[in-house]
Structures are given as structure tokens and as C-alpha cells.
Fold this sequence. Notes:
The complex is a heterotrimer of chains A (273), B (377) and C (64).
Chain A: H1 24-37, E1 45-49, E2 64-67, H2 73-83, E3 88-94, H3 95-101, H4 103-112, E4 117-122, E5 125-126, E6 132-133, H5 157-164, E7 168-173, H6 177-189, E8 194-199, H7 215-225, E9 226-228, H8 229-232, E10 244-251, H9 257-272
Parallel strand pairs in A: 1-2, 1-3, 3-4, 4-8, 7-8, 9-10
Antiparallel strand pairs in A: 5-6, 7-10
Chain B: E1 3-8, H1 9-19, E2 24-27, H2 34-43, E3 50-53, H3 57-69, E4 74-78, H4 80-96, E5 100-104, H5 123-128, E6 137-139, H6 144-161, E7 164-167, H7 171-175, E8 177-182, E9 226-228, H8 242-257, H9 260-263, E10 266-269, E11 276-280, H10 282-297, E12 302-307, E13 309-311, H11 315-324, E14 327-332, H12 337-346, E15 351-356, H13 365-376
Parallel strand pairs in B: 2-3, 2-4, 4-5, 5-7, 6-7, 11-12, 11-14, 14-15
Antiparallel strand pairs in B: 1-8, 6-13, 10-12
Helix pairs in contact in B: 1-2, 1-6, 3-4, 10-13, 11-12
Chain C: E1 7-10, H1 20-24, E2 30-33, E3 36-39, H2 50-54, E4 60-63
Antiparallel strand pairs in C: 1-4, 2-3
Amino acid sequence: MSFDYEKYIRPGKLPHIWCPGCGHGIVMKGLIRAMDALGMKKNNTAIVSGIGCASRLPGYIDCCTLHTTHGRAVAFATGIKMAKPEMQVLCVGGDGDGVAIGGNHFIHACRRNINITYLIMNNNIYGMTGGQFSPTTPTGAKASTTPYGNPDPPFDIAKLAIGAGATFVARGTAYHANQIEKLLVEAIRHKGFSVVEILDSCPTTYGRRNRFRSVVEMMNNLKEIAVSVQAAEHMSPEQMQGKVLTGVLYRDNRPEYVEEYQKVIEAAQDFAG
Amino acid sequence: MSKIAFLQGNEACAYGALYAGCRFFAGYPITPSTEVAEVMAKELPKVGGKFIQMEDEIGAMAAIIGASLTGVKSLTATSGPGFSLKQENLGYACITEVPCVIINVMRGGPSTGMPTGPSQSDVMQAKWGTHGDHPAICIVPASVQELFTETVRAFNLSEKYRMPVTVMPDEIVGHMRERIEIPEPGVIPLTDRTPPSVEPEEYKPYDTRFGDVPPLAAFGSEYRFHVTGLNKAEDGFPTTRAELVQQEEERQMRKIEDHIDDIVSYEEYMLDDADVAVVAFGSTARSARFAVREAREAGIKAGLFRIITYWPFPEKQIAGIAGRVKAIITPEMNLGMTFHEVMRCAAGKSTVSGIFRVDGEPINPGQILDKIKEALR
Amino acid sequence: MEKRLPTIEINEKYCKGCHICVEFCPTRVFEMKGFIATVKNQEACIECMQCELRCPDFAIKVLP
């Protein structure tokens, strides 16, 4: 069955700004299908982003959308969610935005376990500024600011989220297009801070510097490195070398922040008599 | 009936915000403004409001903008280094035209400076701190009572003109304790942002058909819209079309420039026949008032012009004074910020001299009195 | 009975010529024509929807 994406796309906003073969469009389609599957109301949904290629996503979607400053999406979203808890609040962005300049906001949103879903499109590079290495660029990889190879070790975003206290953490890839929707449906349904990392590809600024000959080769690489949580159970550490776990990586049930604050309100009002 | 209370300036500021209808506060601890956050943490939940201590100053500024976009009046409070960090998202609130109020209790600087010492050295930052052109409203109260009422006014101006407003007491005003009168709810009129009057499908967040301050809808209402920190067109979406960018930026400046008299607030004391005028604000204006009285007792015609709205600067009033007096004196706890503004406004019509103090000590009346005498010699 | 063929719409204004549809179609329905993808073998389409799913540019619709 053909899917009617235009239901959630703002009229006249396509074509989007992303480069040929950029996976962000595939991820946006997954997000739209997830929103549709959940029956999310446009008026009651806020989508918040920071700066970067991925952060242009909210401009296309017909909801209450907020394109903020670099790295700050989660902090803006926290204000929205606190002030209007009945709204569904989603954050979207990239790796540099989310875990470099926005790293502090990210870990603290995880810690608070506020009911927001954060979709991170991780393409291992700062694409919009022309291909500088990001905190998820693999060691040794080439970027415009690592002309001799990247000396930095990368972050594992999912592990960072789990360590910081997020209560739903999942990973998918732009190749596994159907899974994006499924992971997002679960994440949005989850009460608490949920993180969905989608490994993505940037043929323009990452691929061409790192010996990927085509868009398709980059997509196929995502297919090759991904190993589902279930499949990984039967694999040795040697077999897992160079692979990345995908699927729902972590799920926990901890008190949600806005609900906890409601208890503060009740306590304060009891105190005030 | 109004309530009499004995409050600290920062506390009065928080109660002023609550009186104004503020129901969201996000902040980060910093001396000497922390008491604002402490009172909000205690009082907001009592009235069903929300308080959040964020991970940093940047996040706090972000959170109040997010909250304000849902239609909730929002506040943050900080000091010096925190005010520097807030500049990024303060600029965001400017370009997106989201109402919010920022309290900056001034301590010395640059950098960590003197955390517990008073200062008046952030007044230029309040206007020029963030990059790009934007209008600014900044209020500098001089008493605990005024910190209460001016915080209410700050919310009103913020809502009326759809922009961030800063209230900047110096540390002395923030930390002094005085008797204040808290009026009954409703005695000070409150202003709310203008809601849209068009159908949701027609709504544009920067629709100039309704004047220079476009109506602002709330997230989560029947209106859907896009907000971006990029230069935008009337519909809220980014544009690089030269004429649209120019128009939008000029409109934002105009909404202040065309309403200067509505925003500028000041107090004149014994200025009518004065030969020498002291232009001061905040706690320094209290010393100045004392010095003016002493000067009058000594037969010197001195007067005080007390700045309450620092930005937009009371240019017209200062220019008028400069035409009437022989000398203007600008005592301030910085190295000449107001001095240069006053020089600009006086445009050579009178002499201008300053008393600048950045050692963490207040400027005392004696210092000002000496300068008054010196100026007329 | 004759096979009813689906309609494959390619929005040329949206297509950025990334080759994804060409390479991921299991029955090789698409080919590149200059910088734009076009339908070469419509009769080979098995309506697996891979092209619509994977097109990053919202350019392909497969209608029954």
C-alpha cells in the first residue's frame, strides 16, 4: 500500500534541502509513518530541533515546530513539556547537535526521564558546515578537520543515553527503513525519555572522503554493520567486531519527570493549606 | 487591601513575577540572584506553576522560551557570567519574538569577577550582548518596592511588544531589605500577548497586517506554526529574500522605536532649576539623591535624573537636561558606560563627567557631592 | 487473466538522482535518465514498495 506522506507534510515545502542520497529523508518518512500509526494529532504535537542538516526536519512537518539554536533542542523541549504536559513532544537532530554542543542538555534530559522522544540521525559528521568530524566520527576517519585521520575516539550515543538514565534506548539504520517506524512507535509510546539513534549516511561530506564510492555503497554498509539484538545473542565477540547492535537496546521503568513534578505541586499546595 | 511586607530585593522580584502571572521558571544557581529561584521554587507549585532547575544557564533560557511558546508567562534569573551564557538564546527570543523576562542581578566582571560585590556593568551587554541587530528593553530598579513593580511592568512590556525584557538590579538592590507594599491582585493592570484573530489556516506568526507586533498563538492550541532562529518571512519559515529579511528586521526595531514614550520610564528630582544634574540609576541613584539634597542645603542647585528604563535609553530627556544645565555627572559602578551614552545625548550642550567605581564598593553620597561642587567650579 | 499493473509515479521535481530506487528495486524496474530516475520495466513491478519506502526524496509513489 502506498503511504500518503503528504498528510503530515506542509504544503509546498518539498523538495527538502537534503543532498542526493542523504538518509534523512528516509528517516523523516519513518517518523511520519510512526506518527500516523500512533494517530498523533498535529495540533498537539511539538517537534523541536537544534541546528544542522537533520534539524531542518521540523520545518517540513505540519505540527507545532520549533527550530532552535545549536544543541539546545532538548532544553527548549523541556520547557514545552513542563508547561504543557498534554502535548506530545519530539526532538530531532544530528550527532554533533545532540552529543557535542548539546551533550549536557542531552544527558540531563536522560537523567530527568522527562517524557520526550529524541530522534538522533547519526551520520558521523557535521554535514551542514561541510564535513568536520563529529563526536561520533570513527577514529581514523577523514573529515575536513581531520585531514590525516581522526585522532578522537567516538561516542556510542546509545550507551551514553543508557548511562545517563534514559529509559528507552533503541538504534536503527537508514537502510532498515521499516524498523525506523517500529522503533519510533515504541519510543513515543514509552513514558519517559526515549532515545532513538538512527545510523545515517552523508554521501556528500563523509562518504566521498572515506572511500565510499556511491550512495548505495553507504546504504549497504549500514546493512552490513547492523546486527539485531536477537542475532547478536548467538554471535561471539570476534564476530561482533565492527558490527553495531540494532533494535531496542534498553528499556526501564522509572518515574517520569513531569508526573514527579505534579507531586511537588500537590505537596506545595498541601503545605499552603 | 494591599499587603505590607519586609522583603529582600530578589524576593520582591520573584513576588512581582508571580503577581504578573508568571507560571514557569527555569534557572541555574548563581550569586547574587539565586534567591529569585529559591522563592520561585517554593511559590510556583503553590499556584500550579512549574519550576525547573536546568543543567546550565543556556538550557534555562531555552526552557523559558519553550514554555512561553505554549502561552505561559515565563521567567529566568541570573547574574554576570550566567547573563553572558544566556545571550545565545536571548538572541533567539529576540528574532523569534517570544515574550519572556530575564532578571540579571549585576555583579562585577568580566568573567567570574566579584560574585558577591555589586556592579552596574552589564548595561551595555543588555543591549549589545547578543550578535545581530535587535530591539532591547532593560529596566534598572533602585528599591525593593520598585523591583516588585518593575518586574510586573517587565512582564507587561514583554507581552505587549512580544519580546524578551531584562530587569537588572545591581547586587545592592537585589540583596537589600526594605518595607514594601504588595498591592491586591488586579490593582496593577496586567497585559497579555495579543492572540490571533484569524482562522487557524490563515494564521501567520509574523503577520504584519496587525501592526508591528503580530499576534502570537500558543503551541498546543488550534493554531499550528513554525518558529525558527533563521531570518524568517511573515509565515515563520526561513527566507533569504533580501527585501523580506530587511523588512522583518526593521519592523522589530520599529516596534520599540515607535513606542519609546510608552516604554521609557524615569524619575526627576529637583531638576527644574538645576545647574548641575546627576544622572544615575539603581543603588547609585540612592546615593545621588542624598548628595543632591546635601548640595541643595549648601545652596547648590543640583538635581537628579534617575534612569528606570535603561534601554531604550532616555535620549530625549537627557538631551533636554543637557540644554538646561551647566554640567552633568554620571556616577556608576562601571568604567563609564552611562557616561558615554549621556555624552552622546548631551551632544556638547553641557559638560559631562563621571564617577566610575568597579572595586565592589558602592559610590557614596560624599563622592557625588564633591563632584557636584567640582563641576560648578 | 491479464496482470493489472501498478502505477509508479516519479515526481521529477523531487527526485535528486541518488540511484537508491535503481539499485534497491529487486526486479530492476528503474533506470537513470540523466540525473533523474525513470521507470524502465513497469511490467516487472511486484509492488514490494521498496522504492517508495527507500526514496529519501518523497519522489516515488506506487499506486495500485
